[in-house]
Structure formats: C-alpha cells, structure tokens
Amino acid sequence: MRATRLNLMRAFAALVIVTLLAGCGFKLRGSNGSYRMPFHTIFLGVPDTSALGTELKRNLRAADDVVVLDKAEGADVQLVVISETRGRQILSLNNLGRVREYLLTYTFNFRVMDAKGAELLPATEITLKRSMEFNEQEVLAKEAEANLLYRDMQSDLVQQILRRLAAMKAPAPQASVPAK
To answer: Where are the transmembrane segments (predicted)?
Structure first.
C-alpha cells in the first residue's frame, strides 16, 4: 500500500516537471532542424542527378530566406564540390576466410567561396563510417542494408554540411554596379 502510494507520487511529480518544461517553451537548440544561414543565395556545384545534392537543396530551401540558384552568377556563396566517394572495406573475416563484416565509408570534400572568389570555408572533408555484418546466404538483403546505411550517412552528411554553412562567417556584401 505504502509502496504504491510512493510510486504514484513519483509519477505525479514527473508529470508535473514534464508539463512545466513543455509549457515554458524549453527546447533543445537546433532541435527543429532549421538553421539560420549567413547568406541569402547559394549556388551548389553538385550534379543534378546527385541524391546528396537533391537532399541538400531541399534542406537549404527549407531554411529561412535562402534561395538556391541554378547559376553561380549572382549567388552570395558557392559550394564547390571537390570529391564525393563511397567505399567498402573488409573489416573482419570468419575462421574460413570469408567476409564477416564490412566497413562502409562516405567521404565528401568541399569548399565554400563568396561571389568574388574569396574562400569563406576552406577545403573541408567529412568522412562517415558504418560497420555492417555480412552473411553470404543473404546477399540481396545485405545489399539493401548497405544502400540504407549509405542513405543514412547521406542524411547525416547533409546535416553536417548545413551546420558548417550556418557557422561560417557571413560573406562581404556585394557592391552594386552603377548603371551607365
């Protein structure tokens, strides 16, 4: 009887604390997934067929007041892709010498330039790694799992790029050219 009453009081106290936190407007910084970018227009130097480029464009368009341009002319900043690679390495073997585990890697190198060609963010490399167990009797399922892991790494990569873009120094304002 006494233990039940004590548990009920604890549950009520926890409910009161959660209600107070929710009511006061508390939320983790960046928890809504949007970032305040220090620029208004950006050109992404990624191919149109790139899944990473498509996801990055979608996330940038969701940010407040950011316009993704199709041409570098007129953009406040340009994201220049140096390289984008995916890799698969053998991580471990079983006692018969067959693959037991792979290490999947996704590496993205880029730099950010302003409209005048000055470097705002020097060459930056982001490398993500995931390990994946392998079973040769489930090859198709493991290929689907690898694709899912690569998509997860791509989403993580986009979020890391957005955080780096949001943290960089704002580009110098462009001087307007007087009309003649």
So the answer is: none
Q: Residue 5 CB: number of other CB atoms within 10 A?
A: 9
CB contact at 8 A, 67 and 74: no
What the chain holds in terms of domains, given with CATH numbers, is 29-167 (3.30.160.150)
The pTM of the full predicted model, rounded to 2 decimals, is: 0.74
Unique residue bearing structure tokens 């167990």: 133
Asked if residues 142 and 134 have their Cβ atoms less than 8 Å apart, the reply is yes
**pLDDT, tens digit (0-9, with 9 covering 90-100), for 81-115:** 999 999 999 999 999 999 999 999 999 999 999 98
**Token pair of 57 as six digits:** 């464009």
**From CA 152, how far away is CA 138, in angstroms rounded?**
21
β-strand partners of 84: 108
Written as six digits, the tokens of 64 are: 């407040």
